[in-house]
Amino acid sequence: MDQLTNDTAASPSRHPILGVGVHDVTEEETVALIAQLLQEGRSAQVATVNPEFVMAAQHNIAFRETLNSADLAVPDGIGLIWAGRLLGTPFRGRVPGVELTRRLAALCAAHGYGLYLLGAAPGVAEEAAERLQQECPGLTIAGTYAGSPAPEEEEAIVARLRAAAPRVVLVAYGAPRQDLWLRRNLPRLGPVVGLGVGGTFDYISGRVPRAPAWMRRIGLEWLYRLLRQPWRWRRMLVLPVFGWRVLAQARHRLGEEAP
To answer: What pLDDT digit, counting tens, does each position of 67-77 carry?
Structure first.
C-alpha cells in the first residue's frame, strides 16, 4: 500500500529489518499521518512492529506479507532501533503501542471520532476504555468486545463493528493473529484505521503494570516485563536469535561495502 499521503514524496521511507519493512517515523509523525488518513476518510492498517514480529515473519509468510503491505509499520521495540543503527538505516525514534494508543484516543476525542476496542480477556477492553475516557474527556467509545480471532466468529464481529461505525479500531489479539485479522477484515469495515495493539489494553486498564519511565527510556522495558511475567521467557528466546541474525546481516553489508 504505502500511500499514506497524496504527496508520495512526503511518505516515510521503509527500512528493511530481516525482510520486514519498517517505516522511519517518529511518534509525532505517526499521529499526524493517522490524523490525515482520518480526515480524508481513508481506510488503513497500522502495525506496531517489534523484534518478535520480525522473527515470526521469518517463517510465517502471510504475516510477513501483512507487515510489508501495512499502510504504516512503526518501530515499536528497542531492538529495532538497535538493528537499524547496525544496518546503517537508523530510525529516528520509537513508537510504543501504549503511547500511540493514548495519543490516538486524544485525537479521537478532539475530533469526535469513535474508538472501538476489540480483543484482550473479557472485561479488560471495558476497563481500558474507561481509563481512556478519564484521560481524554469527550472520547466516544463506539464499542468494546473481547471476542476472538477464530474464523467462526469473524462474521459476527464484523457485523458488530459495522453497526458501531467507529473510525479507529484497536485489535488486541496478539501478533500475528491481530494483524492477520485486520488484513482480512479491514476492507469490510468502511473508512476505518485499524491497529494491532497486543497487550496494550492490559497496561492501560492497570491490570499489568508498566515499567518505570526510566527503564522505558533506556530500553529495559523488556527486562521489567520478564521480571513481572516470568512465563514470557519462552517468547523472549527469539531475541538472541534476532540479534545474531541482525549482526550477520550487518557484517555481510560491511563486507559488500569494503573496497
So the answer is: 999 999 999 98
Provide the 10 A C-beta neighbour count for residue 19. Answer: 12
* Reduced 3-state DSSP string for 196-219: ECCCHHHHHHCCCCCCCHHHHHCC
Peptide bond into 176 cis (omega under 30): yes
Average pLDDT, the chain: 90
CA-to-CA distance for 41 and 191, rounded, in angstroms? 5
Domains of the chain, with CATH numbers?
8-239 (3.40.50.10660)
Of 174, 171, 160, residue with least CA distance to 46? 171
- Distance, in Å, from the CA atom of 198 to the CA atom of 193, rounded to the nearest integer, reads 16
Amino acid type, 178: Q
The C-alpha torsion from 92 through 23 and 45 to 221, rounded to 10°, is -50
Angle at 114 between CA 111 and CA 119, to 5 degrees: 140
- Average pLDDT of the residues in 209-230: 67
* Position 118, amino acid: L
